[in-house]
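Hypothesis: this fold can be encoded by more than one sequence.
Test: take the C-alpha cells below, design a sequence, compare later.
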C-alpha cells in the first residue's frame, strides 16, 4: 500500500514533513517486521521441507538390507546386500524422478523386483564376459578412474563425492574393474543393425508432431539425424540386451534369497 500511495502524497512533503518523518519511521519498522515475518515463514517452509525429506529418506532406508546378507545366488556366485543397496538407491531415485512414490506398498514391491532383476542380469552378463575372456587391465582401470575424476577440482572434493555416494576408492575400483569387461562384452557381442533412413524419418515425424502440438520450434531433419540415429541404435541394443539376458537366464541357476 505504501508504494502505491507514494506518488500521490509526494507533493505534501513540505507541509507534513515531520508527520511523514514519523510515518516513515513507522513504515520502516513495519517493513522490518514484514521482512522478519517473511524470513520466519521462509525458514519454517525450509525446515518443513527438510523434515519431509528426512522422513522420506527414513522410509527409503527401511527398504535396504544387511550389507553382509546374500540377496541372491547366480550360478554359485553370491550377490551381497551391499550390491543390492547400491542399485536399490539408484532405482529409488529413478522412480522419484518419474514422479512416483517408491515408499508405497506397490512401489516398494516394484523397486525390489527391478533391483533384483538388474543385479541378476548384470551378474549373468559379467559371467558371460568372463567366459569369453574379456578382462580389465590395470592401465584401463586407471584411465577410466582419471576420466571419472576430471570434473572434480581436487582429490578432497572427489573423495567427498565418493562418500556421499556411499563409496570409497576400493569399491569404486572394483566397480570399474567389472564395468570394463561388461562394456567390452556388450559392444562386441551384442550387435545391432544401423538405423535406416526410414526409421529415422519415422522417429523425426513423431518428434516434429509432438513439438508442433506443444508450440515448440522443430530443428531440421539434417540437424537432428545424427542424434536420432544414435538414439535409435542405443534403443535397439537395449532391447537386444534384454532378450540376451533372458536367454542367459534360461540356462542359469538363480536363487533369490529375499
Amino acid at each position: 500500500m505504501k508504494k502505491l500511495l507514494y506518488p500521490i502524497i509526494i507533493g505534501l512533503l513540505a507541509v507534513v514533513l515531520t508527520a511523514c518523518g514519523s510515518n516513515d519511521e513507522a513504515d520502516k519498522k513495519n517493513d522490518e517486521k514484514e521482512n522478519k515475518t517473511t524470513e520466519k515463514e521462509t525458514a519454517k517452509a525450509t525446515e518443513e521441507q527438510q523434515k519431509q525429506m528426512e522422513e522420506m529418506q527414513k522410509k527409503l532406508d527401511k527398504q535396504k538390507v544387511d550389507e553382509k546378507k546374500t540377496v541372491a545366488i547366480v550360478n554359485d556366485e553370491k550377490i551381497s546386500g551391499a550390491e543390492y543397496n547400491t542399485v536399490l538407491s539408484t532405482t529409488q531415485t529413478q522412480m522419484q524422478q518419474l514422479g512416483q512414490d517408491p515408499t508405497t506398498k506397490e512401489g516398494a514391491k516394484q523397486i525390489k523386483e527391478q533391483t533384483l532383476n538388474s543385479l541378476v542380469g548384470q551378474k549373468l552378463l559379467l559371467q558371460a564376459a568372463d567366459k569369453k575372456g574379456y578382462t580389465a587391465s590395470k592401465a584401463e582401470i586407471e584411465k577410466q578412474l582419471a576420466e571419472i575424476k576430471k570434473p572434480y577440482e581436487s582429490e578432497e572434493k572427489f573423495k567427498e563425492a565418493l562418500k556421499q555416494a556411499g563409496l570409497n576408492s576400493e569399491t569404486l575400483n572394483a566397480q570399474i574393474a567389472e564395468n570394463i569387461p561388461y562394456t567390452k562384452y556388450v559392444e562386441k557381442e551384442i550387435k545391432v543393425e544401423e538405423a535406416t533412413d526410414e526409421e529415422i524419418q519415422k522417429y523425426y515425424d513423431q518428434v516434429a508432431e509432438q513439438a508442433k502440438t506443444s508450440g515448440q520450434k522443430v530443428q531440421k531433419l539434417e540437424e537432428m539425424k545424427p542424434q536420432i540415429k544414435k538414439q535409435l541404435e542405443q534403443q535397439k541394443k537395449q532391447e537386444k540386451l534384454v532378450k540376451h539376458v533372458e536367454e542367459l537366464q534360461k540356462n542359469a541357476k538363480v536363487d533369490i534369497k529375499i
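The first helix runs from residue 2 to 9. Residues 1-22 have pLDDT under 50 and may be disordered.
Hypothesis status: open.
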